[in-house]
Amino acid sequence: MNASSPSILRALSPADTEDESQSRALLAEVDASCRWPVMLLFSFSLVWLLIGTVFALVASWKMHAPDFLGGISWLTFGRVRPAHLNAMVYGFASQAGVGVTLWLMCRLCRTPLICGWMAALAGVFWNLGVAIGIAGILAGHSTGMEWLEFPPYATPILFAAFALIAIWGIITFRYRREPHLYISQFYLLGALLWFPWLYSMTQVLLVMDPVRGVVQAAVNWWFAHNVLGLWLTPIGLAAIYYFIPKVIGRPVHSYYLSLLGFWSLALFYNWNGMHHLVGGPLPAWLITVSIVASVMMTIPVLTVGLNHHLTMWGNFHRLKDSPVLRFMVFGGMSYTVASLHGVLLALRSVSEVTHFTHSTIAHAHIGMYAFFAMVMFGSIYYIVPRLIQVEWPSARLIRLHFWAAALGILLYVVPLAFGGVMQGLAMNNPDVPFLDPVKHSVVTLTLPYLKTRSLSGILLGIGHLAFAVSFIWILIRWMNAGRRPKTSTADPSV
Amino acid sequence: MKPDSSQPASPGLPPPTGVADFACNDPREPIEPTEDYPSLPLWLVTFAGALMFWGGIYLQRYSGGYAATTYDENALGSGLAKTNAVAQIDPYALGRRLFADTCAKCHQPDGQGVPGQYPPLVNSEWVLASGPARMIRIVLDALQGPVKVKGSDFNNTMTPWRDTLTDQQIAAIVTYVRTQKDWGHNASPVTAGEVAQIRAKTRNHSPAGPWTVSELLAIPEHEPQP
Amino acid sequence: MKYGPLIFFGIFLTLAASWCGLVLMPQIQIGRQGAVRIEETGEFYPAARSGVAQQGFEIYRANGCIYCHSQQVRMEGFGADILRNWGQRRTVARDYLNDKPVMLGTMRTGPDLANIGVRQTSAEWHATHLYNPRIPSKGSIMPPFPFLFEKRKIGSHPSADALKLSGEFAPEPGYEIVPKPEGKALVQYLLSLKANTPLPEAK
Fold it and tell me: Nearest-CA neighbor of A123 among A160, A76, A88, A86?
């Protein structure tokens, strides 16, 4: 589809004005230009999602059945667990995020993808870096730093990929044709600029010329928390801010709330990092600063939640007929829950109980999965048909994916968060033995929650398989459509 | 984009269902999202301000004067820390807790040990001797080499606790093990003073390493009083 | 109005501010800390690790032990770390000067290890525990590390460091389980973990 076929557009959209038809034509041109790089990124992100899911199931099983695959060195829990984290964060989440970023930036800047080769090359480098990195972790070459486990021979490749994307992002933004800045563009610009700075600075301070002692921990958690807050969260919020108003056809409730939400996030989020070290061997003021910043996060979280909610107000009935909206609203509500949970966990009196427990893991998954992954799923379901001009084959599979994912993640986080609190309370009671095979002990009381987590993993895996089947099927349809002569595209009543 | 444009779905067509909102170039799809411009709610601004005020106070109070080596957030700027009162604890409970943290690693939580590796404590003649002199020495400086416990042979190296546990803690553990009701033990308890006495008497032994059985058997079960 | 450059500045400044606060300031305050000399013994604390223990440190890192074990003791009255005998004092920055990377850990699926070299001085216990944690610790969910050991035919007499195993864990008759160099190194590293030396800042 390109601007030279307005007659087809007019036939499809008789209610559009001339102005709107041209806009649609431009959007179609944007979509077509994004096709190859974004489909490449989405396809690979799905591969890493599946690989990460396998790692997750193995790791989760080992926690209550430790002799499962016990003799294999490259599958030992301490290697599979970081392999899972890195495959999901850098393989799945970041790549899906970059794909969504590319498309959203182009659409919102009203400019087709320029230098698409840059984006495609970045995708190739990114996957190479992640693959080499994961292999390195399983081989035992992990750096030992959480969220930064990739060995030093993999990270420059990732950085090169990232730098390409960031440069591309700035160029696209610079040459945008739409002068008004929509809120999603603020977030995307932030994400594209923050991440390479974070990553390069961290590599210098931790790998190339390491700082001494616990300052490493400070740098490590400054980085790790900011990967969540300044890279993934902005992309997720940008997507929700785009797709909710887009699908329901109403404007975002308030431009001013959007700005307040963005700038308060920018101001406060990146001071949070030290709340991972409450009670740890760092000066008290450093920890306190992060606790204060964590509590201040209530401002952007309430602001954004309010904005989304008031946008949806009166339109909740649309959840019935739009799978994309379901993913977005689930993700948006989870963002609020995850963030408020995080505020709670940062307080010293709560951290005294929950630090070092499974509650932390539950919290991480509310943020990474219930919020970010669900938003990515919804975004991919929306974007792909517009890129390749083919319908998703089965509404049932999409419904299965949503419900398996939603119920799966609820089954994961609720019991585990509760179990973590129980674990922490027991750990803080010195009369409860740490391990006793017969009597009540810290380790044995966590077992039911760990087993429930494995069960939830199976549900999540089913959702991911449904997603994979849909994706492969639509790819096959796309390849077949390429061979057949072009007929009319959408049949809206399907 | 005009600030006041709110674009509803095109009228006259039913809302999309199922997969149809993925329909490429769906004519019902609105052009691009826009924003409305109501002003910020006053309550939110007030709340944000109040929270920042709280944040400032908390930061000032709990930063220990922003000092590099102040780790206790309760320390006021002058470096004085709030002291936490040490709760009084029942010696038997202390002994049970310390046993679980310390001895149970080898002797097992149920005190039965591991055959061929770590001797059992339940009904052990070394534990239930009429006097605790040998047992206290074993806890202080450990036991090494061949030993017979309840007719079974063991030959291992125990961890010494002289430098890690105080007299009060050792007394609590030894009392707990000697009087453990679940194991049917009913031997005499031990005081911290007795442990201190033996600790002083044997301070020259510890550099030489753990006790051997022959050395221990040369010591009477009851510590001779001066 | 040209919002682009303004947004760019805002994005840059917010990150720069947190970098200054959370990275630069700690580096200025404690980045140049050195070892202290203990009056009673004349030795420096923290002492450098022996070569074998340093190799063990690398094994600890390679196998992701930090994902279940922490190495930090919280202060008295905050949690029950000291009451559980995980240390006699809280750990402070100076305790970690020689670690690269610092293995603070964020999970306690297993107990804290900051002072494991004080609580458990038996190399033999550590070796057996690493081979299969369920031998000395029934009900443990720690993974086994048999790949740090090898099964050998017993020579003229059993090796000094052969594991004393019985029952289902013992190898077939005529064979013994002996730690490989990696296994021995890891045990030495664990034995080196001590953080009880009194320090003025660690009240």
Answer: A160
* pLDDT of res. B74: 84
Evaluate whether residue B223 is within a structural domain.
no
Task: Write down the pTM of the prediction.
Answer: 0.90
Tell me if B111 is assigned to some domain.
Answer: yes
* Locus of tokens 């016990």: A70
Domain hosting residue B50, numbered range: 1-84
Count of structural domains within chain B: 2
> What is the rounded distance in angstroms from the CA atom of residue A451 to the CA atom of residue A413?
13
Contact B194, B171 (CB under 8 A): yes
Per-domain residue ranges for chain C?
A: 50-191
Tokens at A222, concatenated? 């400054």
Pick A23-180's CATH classification: 3.90.930, 1.10.357, 1.20.120, 3.60.21. 1.20.120
DSSP string computed for A313-379: TT-GGGGGT-HHHHHHHHHHHHHHHHHHHHHHHHSHHHHHHHTBSHHHHHHHHIIIIIIIIHHHHHH
Q: Touching check for A204 and chain C: CB below 8 Å?
A: no
> Which architecture does CATH list for A238-482?
Up-down Bundle (1.20)
d(CA B161, CA B165): 6
List b or e across A403-414, with b for residues whose CB sees 16 or more CB atoms inside 10 angstroms. Answer: ebbbebbbbbbe
Residue B200 lies in a domain: yes
Residue B102 sits in the same domain as residue B199: yes
- Distance from the Cα of C78 to chain B's closest Cα (Å) equals 10
Average pLDDT over residues C148-172: 91
The model's pLDDT over B62-118, given as tens digits with 9 standing for 90+, comes to: 988 888 888 888 876 554 444 444 456 788 888 998 898 889 989 999 999 988 889
Chosen for mutation from C1, C6, C7, C18 (greatest number of chain A CBs closer than 10 Å) is C18
Percent of chain A with pLDDT over 70: 94
The CATH number of the domain holding residue B126 is: 1.10.760.10
Of C23, C78, C109, the CB nearest to A352: C78
For residues B13 and B98, membership in a common domain is answered with: no
A375 is written with which tokens? 């938003």
pLDDT tier at B8 (50, 70, 90 boundaries)? very low
Looking at the complex, does the CB of residue A316 fall below 8 Å from at least one CB of chain B? no
CA distance A134 to chain B (A): 34
Domain ranges of chain A: 23-180, 238-482
Whole-complex ipTM: 0.94
How far apart (Å, rounded) are the C-alpha atoms in residues A421 and A407?
Answer: 22
C84–B contact, CB cutoff 8 A: yes
* Single-letter amino acid code for the residue at C80: A
Q: How far apart are CA B131 and CA B198, in angstroms?
A: 13
Domain C50-191 has CATH 1.10.760.10: yes
What residues of A are in contact with residue B10 (Cβ under 8 Å)? 13, 15-16
- pLDDT-based confidence at residue B204 (cuts at 50, 70, 90): confident
Q: Do C140 and A66 touch (CB under 8 A)?
A: yes
Query: Could you give the CA distance from residue A162 to residue A200 in angstroms, rounded to a whole number?
Result: 10
pLDDT band at C59, cuts 50/70/90?
Answer: very high
B168 and B68 in a common domain: no
In this prediction, residue A18 carries a pLDDT of: 67
* Half-sphere exposure of residue A354: CA atoms within 13 angstroms, side-chain side: 25
Residues B200 and B140 in one domain: yes
How many C-beta atoms surround the C-beta of residue A327 within 10 A? 28
Residue B222 in domain: no
Provide, as residue numbers in chain A, all residues whose Cβ is less than 8 Å from the Cβ of C132: 67
pLDDT confidence tier of residue C67, bands split at 50, 70 and 90: very high
Q: What are the tens digits of pLDDT across the range A450-469? A: 999 999 999 999 999 999 99
Both tokens of A411, joined, read 């089954």
